[in-house]
Each structure stands twice: as C-alpha cells, then as structure tokens.
Amino acid sequence: MNNMPEMKIGIVAVSRDCFPETLSVNRRKALVEAYAKKYDAAEIYECPICIVESEIHMVQALEDIKKAGCNALCVYLGNFGPEISETLLAKHFDGPKMFVAAAEETSKDGGLIQGRGDAYCGMLNASYNLKLRNTKAYIPEYPVGTAEECADMIHEFVPIAKAVYALENLKIISFGPRPLNFLACNAPIKQLYNLGVEIEENSELDLFEAYNKHEGDSRIPEVVADMEKELGAGNKKPEILNKLAQYELTLLDWIEEHKGYRKYVAIAGKCWPAFQTQFGFVPCYVNSRLTGRGIPVSCEVDIYGALSEYIGTVVSNDAVTLLDINNTVTQDIYDEDIKGKFDYTMKDTFMGFHCGNTCSSKLSACEMKNQMIMARSLPEEVTNGTLEGDIAPGDITFFRLQSTADAKLRAYIAHGEVLPVATRSFGSIGIFAIKEMGRFYRHVLIEGNYPHHGAVAFGHFGKTLYEVFKYIGVDVNEIGYNQPAGVLYPTENPFA
Length: 496
Known about the structure:
Layout: E1 9-14, H1 21-38, E2 44-46, H2 55-67, E3 72-77, H3 83-92, E4 97-102, H4 119-132, E5 144-145, H5 147-167, E6 170-175, H6 190-195, E7 198-202, H7 204-213, H8 220-231, H9 241-258, E8 264-268, H10 274-279, H11 284-292, E9 297-298, H12 303-316, E10 320-327, H13 331-338, E11 349-354, E12 367-370, H14 372-375, E13 384-390, E14 394-403, E15 409-418, E16 428-433, H15 437-446, E17 453-457, H16 462-471, E18 479-481
Helix pairs in contact: 1-5, 2-3, 3-4, 5-12, 5-16, 8-9, 9-11
C-alpha cells in the first residue's frame, strides 16, 4: 500500500528562559530514548540545534526540522515553555503538530526545587496561545507524562498526523454525475477545498475514451494472470477478465497522468446505469483490487465516501470498504445463529452490503459473479464483474465524514463487529453488530441526514478517527457515535 505518507515527526523541546534549560535538554533525550526502545525510531527526529527559548531559536528549529524532512511536529514542553515562541513554531510549521509536556520527577534534575519544570502549567498557556493564533494542534487526552508516557502519546499521534497530512496532499478523481434517482450521495464540494483536498471531476465519456485507447494493451495478460491467481477457484467468469484488466490499467494510468502536484489519490467512480451497456461489465472487482492496494474507489460517484475510505485506509494502514447500511437481519437467522450466542439484540444487527467492491483479503471466500440486481433489467453478460462473498468476521469501525447540504462538516463513528454468521445472501456482504444500533440508526444516521453509504475499517479505530475529525475542523457536537443505553440523544423522546 503506497498511496499514503510515511511520517517523520520532529521533536522540538522548548524552555522558558527563567527555568533551567537542562530540564528540557535531559527530558527531550529521555523521551527520544524511550520512543526508540518501544517504537520505530525512524518515525521521529530529535532536533539538536537548540532548545527553543526565543523567536530566533524558533526560526532555527523550524529550518532544522524542515531540512531533516519532517512532515509533522511535536512541541515538547520540558518545562513551562515560552508561550510565544512555541506557538509561533506551530503556526509556521506547515504540517500536523502536537503538544506534550513533561511530568515532574523527584529523583531527577534537582527534584521539586531546582528541578521543578511546571510544564503542567505551561500547557495551559500553550493551548491559550494556540487559540489566539488560530493554530490547530493535537493535544492528547492527558498531555503531561513521563518520557515513556509521552512516547506513547507521540506514537498515538502518528496515524492522526498521517491522515491530516495525507488529506492536505490528496486529489479525488471522480467520473460522471450521480446516477438518476441517486441524490443520496450528493454533497457540496466546498468543504473538500476547506480540508485542502483537490477534486477533479470528469465525464464518463472521458473515461470511456481512455478505456478504448487501452484495447490490446501489452500489460493486459499480466494483469489477467494476477486476477486469476487472486480468484483461484472463485474465477467463475473468466471470459470477463480481459476487459476488467483493461479497465484496471485505464484507472491506474489515469491516476498517474492526472494527479498533478498531489501525492495521493482516491477515486469516486460511476458504475450504473449506462456503464454496463457501454463497457460491457461492472467495475466492482477492479474497485476492490485498487482499494486493496490503498487506492479507494467508491461506488456511485460518492465523493465523500471515497474521502472517508481514504481516511480509514491511512488510519488503519489497511484495506477498507464502502457498504450500504442495507437490510435487517431476518428473525430466523437471529434466532438460530445470534440469539444467546452473542450479546446483541435484534436491533443491534444489520447487513452491510455492496455489489462486489470489497477486496478479497477481507472476505471469508470469494467468487466472481454477475450483479444480480442489475441483471434483472439488463442482459446478464454485461453485468459480470462483482466479487461476491461474506465479509470475514472480526472487529470493525463504521464511520463517515460528510458535508451537509449547507456545506457543514459532520461525521459519525461506531465500533462493532462482523459476526461469524452466514448471510444467505449475495454481493460483498456481512452481518454487522453495533451496540445500540437501532437508536444510532434513528438519532444519528437518519436525524443527521447521512446517506446510506458507510465506510468500514477492519479494526477499532474510533479513538484515532475522532481526533482526526476534530483536527480537520469537525465540530465535536457534529461527531455522532452510538450512545450507550440510558444516555439519550438530543432528539430522543425521553418518554418513549
């Protein structure tokens, strides 16, 4: 997966000039040593130029971490810290930043007389000054700690910084307007620009022209062989692989030719109704393959779905998928396979589905098939290309970042799991369980006017996603989550 950044966090220690500089020097060294013992030392860089006490030091430190190739910053308060210089450093650093502070240690640096640093106090001034300068920075839940604890905080910052940096260097490429009768995924693109994301909108005709130009491409046999290897016994539509390989090469070449100055790319693709009749297949399997490589391809020109998928990819460092919050679990399946075996009510469960866009590594087993829904009104042979299978059981995070119709950012996050229960259905599909899903469905998804597409990351990443959404500007009151029983949503009737 190479469609995402590698982070290098510059650690700059700061010191207020009426406190011993040695406090910050020694504590910085201990922090770096603690990080290197526990985590990948390549993720951090210790700025050795100076301890920042003044604006001149700030400029020197800024130049040093830039020269070292740092794309994220950690301002470390070894003592109280110089509130002006340290926040100017954050303001002028072009990338994600965090602030942490040193806890006191009686046995070191002169104890609580000559060795007291008061960084606990300094963090308050730092946060106040950041607000004065309209400068965003990540401050951990409890930002004061020992060297080992601060190392853990920086490590938790890595995926947050990675997502923020990636968004500032992302281009979303879309093809075609939304299908008719599909206003659900419509959203203003203004917030993309506010996030630093570029958007390139293209016609389906542009894509079709590029696809036709790839006919007979010498690379097609190699891609077909790779598809055959991936599908194995699930290769039930071998006659369609040449076309799918041609389409995959078309998208990959388009990315290289159109990403311009941007480093990372996601795609929002058109997949019906004219796609099948003109291209002669559905693109689901190709979408799954690219998503599995870290290049999310959302269905149905869902631009904010692609954005959400990309954030999930970066945060989880793994493949994601985009699913319809689709249908209820039947009573007989619940009674036979869930009730008494798992701690979920009927309303906690639902099926997440899409035609066949989930990569093979996230399915229990897979087969290449045709798209059954589309085949109800079209010749079956033009609907081939879905990757069907039940989604592998395990922890998941269901989430989405969305712009409202009046261009406000909103998001939701919910932890849950895919149950090891057969769906008895079709498509890329799984039986999902999220605690208090029924209430979440009504008072977050419906009340928040979210579309039916949700991004799925494979694992529990809510803590990181929440901090990413906060950092990029989503109001915390607009980040929905599944409230536990007994805690009412604002729109929930207390007498119900």
